[in-house]
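User: For a reading group we're discussing how well predicted structures match intuition. Take Ecto-NOX disulfide-thiol exchanger 1/2 domain-containing protein. Before you show the prediction, I'll give you the sequence so everyone sees exactly what went in.
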Amino acid sequence: APSPVEPETPVCSNKDPGSELLAPNLKFSEAITVLLTWIERGEVNRRSANQFYSMVQSANSHVRRLMNEKATHEQEMEQAKESFKNALTGILTQFEQIVAVFNASTRQKAWDHFSKAQRKNIDIWRKHSEELRNAHSEQLMGIRREEEMEMSDDDSSDNPSKKLRVDESALTAQAYALKEENDSLRWQLDAYRNEVELLKQEKGQLFRTEESLTKDQQLKFLQQTMQGMQQQLLSIQEELNNKKSELQQAKEEQTHTEARLKVLQEQLKSAKELAEINGQDESQEINMLTVALVNQEREKNSEKRSQGLKSEKEALLIGIISTFLHVHPFGANIEYLWSYMQQLDSRISANEIETLLMRLPRMFKQEFTGVGATLEKRWKFCAFEGIKTT
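Assistant: Thanks. Here is the predicted 3D structure of Ecto-NOX disulfide-thiol exchanger 1/2 domain-containing protein, as structure tokens, for the group to look at:
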């Protein structure tokens, strides 16, 4: 591979090596690299010492040039920061105005005229604008905090050149930024006041609506409760009348039974006296006759209990119970039957069903199934058999 080309020595050069160091920054790096190579390689001797001194002096002069360039760039950077801060302040002001427009649109006098979809879009736009405004405000506050920290550092420093950077234009820009921030805060305060007033109005309207709705609900609930109590009272009154009728009928039957029993006792007494006179055979015949009369009396009482229906409700119950037991040929206990009837009428009791079944022995009969602990009473539908005996 070919060897790298080394820089020429200054003794062979026709031009002043120091002129390379005075070139622009683009050529300065190349020139300083050549100078460094010459010095490290040992090209400095008594004959070329003055030339090398001139080049080193030129390098030292370039230091001042670099410092001037750095100061210029720092000034440009400060101006760019100030321009950016002013632009950001203007943008933030416009954001505040836009948010104020959205807040004004949400007031009731304007809000009620927008459609549901329009309200939704306005609310979305408002939230997005508030987020952007807050982000820009935070960024601007961050810049101002950095400036305050820099100014604090500048105050503690003894370098007078840094203190001169805070000139009249910076103070003017800061005053303008403070004015814009004050306007922005005033816009926000007005928007918050409007929102608070709107919330108060909506809360008052909602409270009146809820209060009216609560009163209507209470009134409706009381009316329903009163209707339920009236229906329950009518049902109890009807049941009480039925019980009174049953009690009156039972009293009449008891009176009639007692009278018949008294007659039978007198007849039995007479028969006994006659038996003592006529002998034992006639006594047996009288006893058989007495048993027959008692059984006949029981059948008459049973027929009286089973005659007629007291209300249309009993007719409906008989029809439903008959249908239920007809599809249960092996019968059903009173608890099973009562649980079925409860689904149709929750006010009916098991005692009421059993009393109705006992009043109709030719339609319903009770049988016992099982033995011991499994003994169970079941009711069966027997109207097809009972009609043959009537």
